[in-house]
Amino acid sequence: MFRVSNNLVGILNIITFLISIPIIGGGIWLSRQADTECERFLEKPVIALGVFVMLVSLAGLIGSCCRVSWLLWVYLLVMFLLIVLIFCFTIFAFVVTNKGAGEALSDRGYKEYRLGDYSNWLQKRVNNHWGRIQSCLQDSKICKTLIDDGSSTKVEDFYKKHLSALQSGCCKPSNDCNFTYVSPTNWTNNSTSSLTNPDCNLWSNDQNVLCYSCESCKAGLLDNIKSDWKRVAVLNIIFLVFLIVVYSVGCCAFRNTRRDNSYKRYP
């Protein structure tokens, strides 16, 4: 007798199969429309994810609806490995994002970010790939709003601005430098400037350079990564519960399929 669990697994896998189609389509669209190296970098992982979801969905769908035991076994094995992988990644994400936060400054609407405050593992990853990351940040025009403001922003108004972590780290010099404000992306080095912070020597008023090579820019990126990873970790927990439920139903479907096949083989 065909079981409810088999129908439920079939329905769930039809849904995930349909979800995989726009994922693959998005990857193909990226490959044709991407203008920057950063966008092209996402192309292959997105397509690979879509194909993986599609193949797993087909295995679960055919295995449950056509009562193919070995396909259901493969489906359950992949699901189990996926659950373990997501569980490990979630724990890892919480551990590596546990350190680091922006430093609040008096009379400033923005925070300062220091690379040494963040996880050593994240620091190494960012340092090893900074050339590509820096190019991506420059292409993303994160400093465009500050550049467009030009000299129209008064110093007191600028200090009250609520800058993002990347804008604070990449688009202006560090507060330690004590540079004299001219405009949001134009600062003057003077005799009272402190150059103990290595970022002070890296700052440039060139709109294409600014502080993209600074450690504060890397720290701003890590603060963004930290926030994003924490959100992903929370979503992973929800997804993990969903996968465990699907895996449990799949186990029931597998057991029912083997039992039904045994009845057919030995009437």
Automatic annotation (TrEMBL):
<feature type="transmembrane region" description="Helical">
    <location>
        <begin position="232"/>
        <end position="254"/>
    </location>
</feature>
<protein>
    <recommendedName>
        <fullName>Tetraspanin-8</fullName>
    </recommendedName>
</protein>
<keyword id="KW-0472">Membrane</keyword>
<dbReference type="InterPro" id="IPR018503">
    <property type="entry name" value="Tetraspanin_CS"/>
</dbReference>
<keyword id="KW-0812">Transmembrane</keyword>
<feature type="transmembrane region" description="Helical">
    <location>
        <begin position="7"/>
        <end position="30"/>
    </location>
</feature>
<keyword id="KW-1133">Transmembrane helix</keyword>
<dbReference type="InterPro" id="IPR044991">
    <property type="entry name" value="TET_plant"/>
</dbReference>
<comment type="similarity">
    <text>Belongs to the tetraspanin (TM4SF) family.</text>
</comment>
<feature type="transmembrane region" description="Helical">
    <location>
        <begin position="70"/>
        <end position="96"/>
    </location>
</feature>
<dbReference type="GO" id="GO:0016020">
    <property type="term" value="C:membrane"/>
</dbReference>
<dbReference type="GO" id="GO:0009734">
    <property type="term" value="P:auxin-activated signaling pathway"/>
</dbReference>
<feature type="transmembrane region" description="Helical">
    <location>
        <begin position="45"/>
        <end position="63"/>
    </location>
</feature>
<dbReference type="Pfam" id="PF00335">
    <property type="entry name" value="Tetraspanin"/>
</dbReference>
<dbReference type="InterPro" id="IPR018499">
    <property type="entry name" value="Tetraspanin/Peripherin"/>
</dbReference>
